[in-house]
C-alpha cells in the first residue's frame, strides 16, 4: 500500500475516534442520589457548585425539589 494512502486512512480513524469520544478521557460528573433527610425550604439557598461540591466538609450535595443543595450530614 503506498504511503500516500496511509495518511488519509489514519486521519479517518482519528476523526472516527473523536466522534465516538474515545480519543480523550473526559471526567464524568459524580453521581448522587436523593438525601435521606427531608429538606426544609430554608436550605434551598445553599446550592452546590457545578461539580456537585460543597464548600463545607460536613455537608453533602443532594438532589431536592429546589435543585442540588448542600445539606448537613448531622
Automatic annotation (TrEMBL):
Q: Name one GO molecular function term.
A: peptidase inhibitor activity
- Locate the WAP domain: which residues? 26-74
> What cellular component GO annotations does this protein have?
extracellular region
Q: Where is the signal peptide?
A: 1-21
What name has this protein been given in UniProt? WAP four-disulfide core domain 10B
* Native source organism of the sequence: Molossus molossus (Pallas' mastiff bat)
At the top level, the lineage of the source is Eukaryota
Which keywords, in A-to-Z order, does the entry hold? Signal
Amino acid at each position: 500500500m503506498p504511503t500516500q494512502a496511509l495518511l488519509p486512512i489514519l486521519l479517518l480513524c482519528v476523526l472516527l475516534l473523536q466522534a465516538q469520544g474515545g480519543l480523550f478521557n473526559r471526567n464524568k460528573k459524580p453521581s448522587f442520589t436523593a438525601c435521606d433527610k427531608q429538606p426544609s425550604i430554608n436550605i434551598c439557598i445553599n446550592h452546590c457548585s457545578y461539580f456537585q461540591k460543597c464548600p463545607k466538609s460536613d455537608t453533602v450535595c443532594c438532589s431536592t425539589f429546589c435543585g442540588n443543595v448542600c445539606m448537613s450530614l448531622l
